[in-house]
Amino acid sequence: NQSSFGMIGLGTMGSNLLQNIADHGYNCSGYDNDPKKVDTLNNLSRNDIHAYSDLKAFVENLKSPKTVMMLVPAGKIVDAVIGELLEVLDKGDIIIDGGNSHFTDTERRFADLEKKGYHFVGMGVSGGEEGARKGPSMMPGGDKNAYETIKPVLEKIAAHVNGEPTVAYMGERSAGHFVKMVHNGIEYALMQLISETYEVMKKGLQMDDKEIYEVFKKWNDGRLKSYLIEITRDIFAYKKKGEDHLFFNDIKDEAKAKGTGKWTSQAAMDLTVPVPIIDIAVSMRDLSKYKDLRTKASQMYPDPKEIKFTDKKGEYIAQLEEAFYFAMVSAYAQGMHLLYSANEEFKYDLNLDLIAKIWRGGCIIRSEFLEDIYAAYKKDSKLKHLFLDDSVHKNLLKSISGIRTVVSDAALHGIAVPAFAVALSYFDNFRNEEMPANLIQAQRDFFGSHTYELRGKEGVFHTDWEDGGN
Ligand code: 6PG
């Protein structure tokens, strides 16, 4: 009984995704060079899944044209596995990289494999371990014909929203991995915003864990409904057996990162697209690692004497909800702006409405608000920035006062809300017809003859500023 789908890398993600595929009626094979992982899968004793520790045997058991997906750590391992695969696969076979590969690696691998006659699909997979098992969101890009071949499987195993699968062909070459990278950038931004919300409730409003739980619970029943708010609510209810304190309070305040957020910021800087909420989210994870410096500085620079935002907690929570809504919209808007610009630069042929559509389910950043994003891009697929959409515009106007209140109170009381603050300042400059950038141009020209352009006059000019003028 030959398999129609092969998976390389039988960690939890690979194993779960393979079981998901088998559940939908496909015979599957798995390969890993770790015999323990092979045994774990074989010990499930499913007659529709066979795992191998011998690559040749694994490949021989696949139907032609063979479809092999890799779920291995990004980087050199992907190249090594592709190298091994080329020795055992035939031209015309399909290789899918489902890991979080850097889009420039995917770009290179796509070109190389296309030249050699193989079909390569770089595919972002989101939804974590549970998503892989029950229905992820998938962002494939690259070889369009190969996508058409694997589309029926992917559509079956994906999550579904209103009966439609959360998978679609993203675009040319490395488009799939670029889109997944931006997804992760937004993920970083939203997580940072949620953690700042927690900080405001805990330190600014002196709320206890139970009260904070109630807020996240309520938010998840409203317009902020999203996977990340939902799991945050659950974290605020999680106690280990026999213990009466919340478990997450035992965790060190030092955040780790595998790099996709940083890549998003790097790519955005290369494309000269501002995504400051993502940037600050990456930076704050970095700052969290300097525990010893933070500890020392906390003694040198103590808190202001009285930290108390308000006596009216209930009313304040409504403002905080507005602030979070405003900043959340801004985080998605910055990510979408980056996708818009990357599409122009890299000629990916992306459809922003389709991206919003498949992010509505299965992935980590799925949220109620993605319905609005989807609606905005469906109405105008060439929309340059989400802030310019009519309905987003209306809702943002209503939430500005909330974010101004929270950011100013936090500043006055010495509570760090960098992502909220940068969301607000980005917005205030985005709506600023006259930025002070003329002064920067004057300075550049003053010290380095970098030249400037003038209002109402064509051309590029330079002034000898040292001559003192008039
Ligand atoms: C997903 C996630 C996932 C990512 C983790 C960890 O969409 O399922 O984005 O792909 O690996 O979120 O990322 P960090 O280790 O960088 O926080």
CATH class of the largest domain: Mainly Alpha
Distance between the termini: 89 Å
Element-by-element helix/strand order: EHEHEHEHEHEHEHEEHHHHHHHHHHHHEE
* Overall number of structural domains: 3
- Radius of gyration of CA atoms, rounded to a whole number: 25 Å
Adjacency order of strands in the biggest sheet: 3-2-1-4-5-6-7
Number of strands: 11
- Biggest beta sheet summary: 7 strands, mixed
> If you consult CATH, what is the topology of the largest domain?
N-(1-d-carboxylethyl)-l-norvaline Dehydrogenase, domain 2
Count of helical regions: 19
The name of the CATH superfamily of the largest domain reads N-(1-d-carboxylethyl)-l-norvaline Dehydrogenase, domain 2
Strand content: 5-15%
CATH architecture name of the largest domain: Orthogonal Bundle
Helix fraction by DSSP (H/I, runs of at least 4): 55-70%
Keywords: Gluconate utilization, NADP, Oxidoreductase, Pentose shunt
Active site: 180, 187
EC number: 1.1.1.44
Binding site for substrate: 100, 126-128, 183-184, 188, 258, 285, 444, 450
What layout of secondary structure does this protein have?
Layout: E1 5-8, H1 12-23, E2 28-31, H2 35-42, E3 49-52, H3 55-60, E4 67-70, H4 76-88, E5 94-97, H5 103-116, E6 119-126, H6 128-134, E7 137-142, H7 144-157, E8 160-161, E9 164-165, H8 175-204, H9 209-219, H10 227-235, H11 260-270, H12 276-288, H13 291-300, H14 313-346, H15 352-359, H16 369-379, H17 390-413, H18 418-430, H19 437-448, E10 452-454, E11 457-461
Parallel strand pairs: 1-2, 1-4, 2-3, 4-5, 5-6
Antiparallel strand pairs: 6-7, 8-9, 10-11
